[in-house]
Design brief:
TIM Barrel, 49% helix, alpha/beta, 12 helices
């Protein structure tokens, strides 16, 4: 089965810059969009956890997607995240995605309820029916509590709309499973420290929060592995990026760290939506030091060819 949509390259799950009152800083969101596109990313995602979707209403998420779609103006594909605890909310987001005209939706397991594979598949198929758009699945059992297992993949795979999966389980055996048994569902990296392994197994895309503030460096790894097929160069770039990935994952501060990274680039992202709080001074200083080293190292690798 040939996918109806090809997810290729670096997809940035956008942060949501905030004003002091917690509302969206629209001009700064536009700046982030323009910056990452100018640096070569291949697609954008709104309504993901990096955008703090868990603390936003359905109406707010739709408003962000509508604004982003209009500002992109066709420069790159836009994917709208439909993840929600209530199926009715996910369906509302799916219908809005179709009405707005986005290119695809991101579909995760509903958190907390821990559905069986059959229940999860029926839920996904209901969302699919509402959107009738290409779908990037999002398998992140550490956040949702549910693994998208073989029965789930078999059931949803009967619909051609399910044409990609952001695999974030951290289990390298899932990479092997998806590559061997589900080649019709394009496998994408959702676990940053495994990006090299995903590319080696044929993954054509990588959804990476760090590309909000280091887009060119993430694109460099994709280009080396996927476009050039130069895994020797890819290993060097990946080795240079690993300290950044360790900082991003430290103590569950991923979103806060990504937002500070964007602020470091001169685009003020504001605070965090509750219950999260911004990084402290020590965490900021550590990120700033790591970013300097990563940029310098990858620039040197790129210059050497």
């Amino acid at each position: 089965m040939t996918p109806i949509f090809k997810f290729e390259g670096i997809y940035t799950p956008l942060v949501t810059p905030l004003l002091p009152d917690g509302s969206v800083a629209w001009d700064r969101l536009a700046e982030v969009v323009d910056f990452v596109i100018a640096q070569g990313v291949h697609g954008l995602i709104t309504g993901g956890s990096t955008g703090e979707n868990y603390a936003q209403t359905v109406a707010e998420r739709i408003e962000i997607a509508r604004f982003t779609h209009a500002h992109i103006a066709g420069r790159v594909p836009l994917v709208l995240g439909t993840g929600a605890m209530l199926t009715s909310d996910s369906i509302a987001l799916a219908r809005a995605a179709r009405e707005i005209g986005v290119d695809a939706i991101l579909l995760a397991s509903p958190p907390y309820s821990v559905p069986t594979d059959r229940e999860n598949a029926l839920n996904a198929l209901a969302i699919d029916k509402a959107a009738d758009l290409p779908i990037m699945l999002y398998n992140y059992p550490h956040r949702t509590g549910a693994m998208m297992g073989a029965e789930f993949l078999d059931r949803v795979g009967r619909s051609r709309n399910f044409c990609g999966i952001k695999e974030s389980s951290g289990d390298i055996n899932r990479v092997h499973l998806l590559a061997r048994d589900y080649p019709h569902i394009q496998m994408g990296c959702g676990m940053d420290d495994q990006a090299l392994e995903f590319f080696a197994w044929g993954a054509p895309f990588w959804v990476c929060g760090g590309s909000n503030f280091l887009p060119a460096e993430h694109v460099a790894l994709y280009n080396a592995c996927v476009i050039e097929g130069d895994f020797s160069k890819g290993r060097r770039i990946m080795s240079a990026m690993l300290p950044l990935m360790r900082v991003l994952e430290q103590g569950g501060k991923f979103i806060q760290t990504v937002k500070h990274g964007v602020t470091m680039n001169g685009i003020e992202t504001g605070g965090m939506l509750p219950p999260l709080t911004p990084l402290n001074k020590d965490d900021k200083r550590e990120l700033e030091q790591v970013v300097r080293v990563v940029k310098r190292a990858i620039a040197t690798i790129e210059a050497e060819g």
